[in-house]
Amino acid sequence: MLNVSRNNGPNQVLDTSFNTENLLHTNKFKFLDKACIRTQDGKNESPWRLCTVSQVEQVKIIISVVPIFACTIIFNTILAQLQTFSVQQGSTMNTKIIDGFEIPPASLQSIPYIMLIFVVPLYETVLVPTAQKITGNDSGITPLQRVGIGLFVATFSMVSAALVEKKRRVSALHHDETMSIFWIAPQFLIFGVSEMFTAVGLIEFFYKQSLEGMQSFLTAMTYCSYSFGFYLSSILVSLVNQITRSKSHGGWLSDNDLNKDRLDLFYWMLAALSLINFFNYVFCSKFFSYNPSLSNGGPCHDDPKARQASLEEVYDI
User: Fold this and answer.
1) Of 11, 70, 159, 249, which is the most buried if we count CB atoms within 10 A?
2) How many domains does the chain have?
3) Residue of 154, 227, 166 whose CA lies nearest to 190
4) Is residue 62 included in any domain, yes or no?
């Protein structure tokens, strides 16, 4: 614990005004606290070298949310596969609905977003009030729990995709049959439910764990997750082809012909990665702690005097 005094002597934490934009000191990443302690001879220390408590806590928030952010990359890798291989998968299937009309395979990507239009209001009006009675939480479940549910459900999207691709491939090679394109709709439906929890929950989490001015930065991290997820998708395809390459075959995804490739095995691999990612998320979220000044209903959330008293207690003033 830091020991400081009210005077302007050495080793004093830089004075801050106690308003609603101040963050309370926390004990995580304590090595960063050195940034807000004056040097022994630092009467006119440069503001580039001396930070306020709030500035240090903002850096702690950014560092603490990075593991949560990283756990959503695999989720967006699954999204990348649904927008690429699933379209290729649909193009090999029967797209005819009625005579003279065929459904474009790429149009199935709209299913998750159409689901969000109907499922999100249902979630807010039915599931949240029910969860409030059970958990006592104002939002029903916490944003971190919401993200966790979404990451878990995303695994079943790939399980569904692998099972359907296996059936499609067997039907095409051994029975000379073409399955209907609507067989791949369940994987989009499941992912739509997953996205309702993960994407919305992540944005809600970032807004609740940031001050005004940080919200835009943290929200931008969600879009960085999309970028990393799609980039990881390309890397995985290349790695899988390299590892599964043999003298007689170029790899699971090398022929650009799904009847020769093993897209179903690739989907199973993604399902396994998604499940591992979920357990990694559970581990990371278990050790995550909210800053008390940002927690709803927490001490010092709205009362500047209580905030100052809490800081004085933390710093042993």
Assistant:
1) 159
2) 1
3) 154
4) no
Instruction: Kindly report the backbone phi and psi dihedral angles of residue 44, in degrees, each rounded to the nearest multiple of 5, phi listed first.
Output: -115, 55
Structural domain of 118 = 73-290
Domain with residue 283: its CATH number is: 1.20.1250.20
Residue 83 placed within a domain: yes
Q: Tokens representing 246?
A: 């043999």
Across the chain, mean pLDDT equals: 77
Residues 143-153: tens digit of each pLDDT: 888 899 999 99
Quick check: is 308 in a domain?
A: no
User: Domain for residue 209, yes or no?
Assistant: yes
Q: Which amino acid appears at position 8 of this protein? A: N
The whole-model pTM stands at 0.77
